[in-house]
Amino acid sequence: MSRLDPSPAADLPAPILRLDGLSVRLPRNAEREHAILDVSLALAPNEILCVVGESGSGKSMTSSAIMRLLPPGVVADHGSIVFDGRDLLKLSEAQMREVRGAQIAMVFQEPMTALNPLHTVGQQIGEMFRIHTAFGVDVIEQRVHALLDEVRMPDPQAAAGAYPHELSGGQRQRAMIAMALALEPRVLIADEPTTALDVTTQAQILRLIRDLQKRKSTSVLFITHDFGVVAEIADRVAVMQQGRLVEQGPASQVLNAPRHAYTRQLIGAVPSLTPPASRPAVPGGAVPALVVEEVSKTYRTGGFLARGARVTKALDHVSLELPKGATLGVVGESGSGKSTLARCIVRLIDPDGGRIMIDNLDLAAMSHRQVRAATQRVQMVFQDPYASLNPRRRVGELVAQGPMAHGVSRREAMAKALSLLSLVGLDPAAIDRFPHEFSGGQRQRIGLARALALDPEILIADEPVSALDVSVQAQVLGLLEDLKQRLGLSMLFVTHDLRVAAQICDVVVVMKAGKIVEAGPTAQVFTNPQAEYTRALLEAIPGREWSAHAAPEQNHHKGELT
After folding, report:
1. Residues 150 and 293 grouped into a single domain
2. Count of domains forming the chain
3. Which of 211, 294, 407, 514 meets the CB 3.0–4.6 Å disulfide criterion with 354?
4. Do 174 and 295 sit in the same domain of this protein?
5. How far apart are the first and last CA of the chain?
6. Is residue 208 a part of any domain in this protein?
7. 316 HSE (CA, 13 A, CB side)
8. Other beta carbons within 10 Å of 414
9. Quick one: 133 exposed, middle or buried, by C-beta within 10 A (0-12, 13-18, 19+)?
10. 266 has which bridge partners?
């Protein structure tokens, strides 16, 4: 249920947390002088305030300043952060330690990096009590189990004894929320807590935060770049751009009648769940560029030899066809098998059985030496371009190394790299720079250039925009569509974001637990889903009612923001 009818700001009681003219200065060699400049915000008791903006807008730095956890060399040089009548910026570190966790707690975006991999979940939640209370071992254990139950963790006792890597992404995030709520803080800061989660897990976490906030009367500062999340959970909204606060107000006003041009542009870049009317239908009987027949993949983990091994069917006799010149979307939750399918197609993973056909070539039956030559025709773009790009190589070398490995001279390969970088919208000077010198969207363009260097017929895109801001996401989607048309590509597009699938995919298959449960033209599947699982995915989309209302005024894939 959406929260678009909060009480007007004038009716709110005195704030529990207030930022007045806060400025945070960056080190001397940074792109700009201040990460945050003259920001004033107020968080009222028992409200959810969403701070929204792109990467670099200063929203996460705002939360770090509140927690007094700024990176080295970054300092709050002006303004105040008043909590419970005290300016947090003037407290000693010892005084601040009494505030952190006990009175103001934080949930981070990536729990796997925030949780200690060497300690069980129960030990890490219990540490909050060991540090801040005089509870005995038995009481702490009871409190830990009660907290895990409160955050709807399946089998709280087993979860307490598990290590972080043994839990799913959603379960790890629930553990982080349990830890943050252990001492019943008055303020909870949630920094992009649902960004890496699939749509149904995201909906569960949002519902959990909202329910806990209501029951415990906690004030929540929720940081996000997802306007669907804002529509789902916010009482009020504050919009940040380049370190400045450009707009704030009740959620209903900011979402439905934004005053600032930047807010309107951000909302305009949110993908609609309605496929574009201009997208031509895939002609019946179109020649398939790729045929997947009865492909299976089973993983066995744990146990000694066959004893006690856990068997997971990642792919269970999956069959599909990618029509030539079309974009086929593969959607589903984490663990549905969609990324395993993509990796089997390019033979990064060897399937256990089935056929993967490009014309008369069966990629599944080839040796790795044979695959190396054949897979020039099918290339992959990965979710995290930074992890897939060698940080020690210059961009030109990264793009050129594919053609060079297939016998093209260095001179020709570098010339082609220059041309491809221009094709994906990067300055020619990028050829001599390193991956870390680029933004996330620019690195994804580099990944695209590298994938196109071997002139593939088929592009496999595995969650290529899931880590990007909404405006950068729109630019990359527009670029993919443009390249597909100009180069005559066929594309298999893996995503858990159904809005993105609606905008770029001609046809779609829905996967659950390694099987395809529904397939068809995107408009047909999304407007008249036949499978109960597909309906559940669609219903779980945060802010679905708002986005459907806002869709007519949105302008997708234009890339207005830079």
Report:
1. no
2. 2
3. 294
4. no
5. 33
6. no
7. 12
8. 18
9. middle
10. none
Quick one: 163 and 312 in the same domain?
no
CA atoms of 410 and 397, how far apart (whole Å): 9
Looking at the domain assignment, is residue 329 inside a domain?
yes
Structure tokens, 124:
């890490």
Q: What is the pTM of this model?
A: 0.81
The two structure tokens encoding residue 97: 């330690």
- Extract the tokens encoding 442: 């620019």
Residue 524: predicted pLDDT: 93
Containing structural domain, residue 490: 288-384+456-550
* 214 class by beta-carbon count within 10 Å (0-12 exposed, 13-18 middle, 19+ buried): exposed
471 and 344, same structural domain?
yes
pLDDT of residue 101: 87
| Amino acid (one-letter) located at 383 | Q
Residue closest to 425 by CA, chosen among 484, 479, 380: 479
Concatenating the DSSP letter of every residue in 489-538 gives -EEEEEES-HHHHHHH-SEEEEEETTEEEEEEEHHHHHHS--SHHHHHHH
Any idea of the CA torsion for 19, 265, 489, 347, to the nearest 10 degrees? 10
| CATH code of the domain covering residue 513 | 3.40.50.300
Residues 6+ apart with CB under 8 A from 261: none
| 176 shares its domain with 320 | no
Residues 180 and 292 in one domain: no
Burial letters for 78-114: b for 16+ Cβ neighbours within 10 Å, e otherwise? bbbbbbeeeebbebeeeebeebbbbebbbbbbbbeeb
Give residues with Cβ within 8 angstroms of 284, minimum separation 6: none
Comparing CA positions, the residue from 340, 355, 323 lying closest to residue 490 is 323
Residues 6+ apart with CB under 8 A from 387: none
| Token pair listed for 137 | 């071992």
**Alpha carbon distance 224, 46 (integer Å):** 19
Q: Is residue 90 part of a domain?
A: no
Could you give the CA distance from residue 67 to residue 89 in angstroms, rounded to a whole number? Answer: 9
CA–CA gap between residue 129 and residue 544 (Å, rounded)? 39
Q: Which of 479, 453, 454 is CA-nearest to residue 464?
A: 479
pLDDT in tens, 385-407: 667 788 888 999 999 998 998 88
Q: Residues 163, 293: one domain?
A: no
Report if residue 337 sits inside a domain.
yes
Reported as a single tens digit per residue, the pLDDT across 194-243 is 876 778 888 888 888 898 888 888 999 999 988 888 999 999 999 999 99
Q: How many CB atoms lie within 10 A of CB 488?
A: 11
178 with 308, same domain?
no
DSSP states along 216-263: HT-EEEEEES-HHHHHHH-SEEEEEETTEEEEEEEHHHHHHS--SHHH
Domain stop point among 184, 200, 215? 184
Residues of the chain with pLDDT under 50: 1-10, 304, 551-562
Tokens of 546: 């708002």
Measured CA to CA, the distance from residue 33 to residue 10 in angstroms comes to 34
Phi/psi for 439 (5° steps) reads: -75, 170
